[in-house]
Amino acid sequence: MTALRPDRLLEDDSQPDRRARILDAAEHCFVRSGFHRTTMQDIAAEAKMSPGNLYRYFPSKDAMAAGLAERDRAQREKAILCLEIWAEATRNPTFAAVTHEFERDVIARMEALFRQAQEKGLVAAEVDVRSLAVLISTLADGLFVRRAILPNFAPKREIATVMAVVEAAFAGRIHLPAADPDGGSSKSH
Predict the structure, then answer these.
(1) Are 23 and 68 in contact (CB under 8 A)?
(2) In b/e form, how buried is each residue of 152-185, taking b as 16+ CB within 10 angstroms?
(3) What is the DSSP letter of 37?
(4) For 7, 84, 111, 114, which has the most beta carbons within 10 A of its beta carbon?
(5) What is the DSSP letter of 4?
(6) What is the pLDDT of residues 54-113, one digit of tens each?
(7) What is the DSSP string of 116-183?
(8) Contacts of 110 (CB under 8 A, 6+ apart)
(9) Which residues pair with 179 in a beta bridge?
(10) Which of 139, 126, 130, 141 lies closest to 108 in space, CA to CA?
């Protein structure tokens, strides 16, 4: 039996996956070393592929930068579409029902995952997992809004901040108010 080689596994992925992997690698290299100091060989090494294979997907660093800009634009457009759907849900009962059901499903799935994690000791025993799911959903919604409206949105920094809050919540270092069974936070007036 032949041993599986991780480098071979990477070569077997689909063309869109390879393009995404190359763009991720280029982004990391550009951030780490700057556009001008980054070489195609640096990007190939980061993407775990040969430089010759890299050139099959992108003929130059300029093409990669254009690919990153297009990917960023597409991600921003998705965030804007999300805001449009949410806005329409405030006026249209059909959109409201779909949005509400989607939110309930997301919260229920996260709650189930967090309960399993809690049983394994990965989430503190005193943490209300429904409240944790609502917190993460709320933070994710905020990231979507910020992504849609801020032209200088810095996803890595902002996601890192959100993840620090999530880690503190998992550890029970943040007191979370009890969530209602419908997925939202219970309101006390």
Answers:
(1) yes
(2) ebeeeebeeebeeebeebbeeeeebeebeeebee
(3) T
(4) 114
(5) P
(6) 999 999 999 999 999 898 888 888 889 889 999 999 999 999 999 999 999 999 999 999
(7) HHHHTTSS-TTS-HHHHHHHHHHHHHHHHHHHHH-TT--HHHHHHHHHHHHHHHHTT-S--PPBPTTS
(8) 132, 133, 136, 137
(9) 185
(10) 130
